[in-house]
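= Protein in question =
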Amino acid sequence: MINENIGSDTVALDIKADGGATININGVPVLSLGANGTIGYPSYTTTQRNALTDLAAGQTILNSTTNKLNFYDGSGWVVVTSA
């Protein structure tokens, strides 16, 4: 695992034996990369999502209540929908 302090945040990169990796910020997983090229977002219920703090615009999660991607636009959560 590689840890780097950036300002008041700790960013960690955990490279798995299978070639996948997980990126954590302050101990919270923010992105998983599969060895086969897949991307995994952290999964939260709507209640858990609404309790998250210290968010930055662009943070993305899988809402397990709705089974849809949600991203934080800097002031609130937005559901990703198809055009």
User: Anything to note?
Assistant: Residues 1-40 form one domain. The chain has a mean pLDDT of 91. The chain has two domains: 1-40, 42-83.
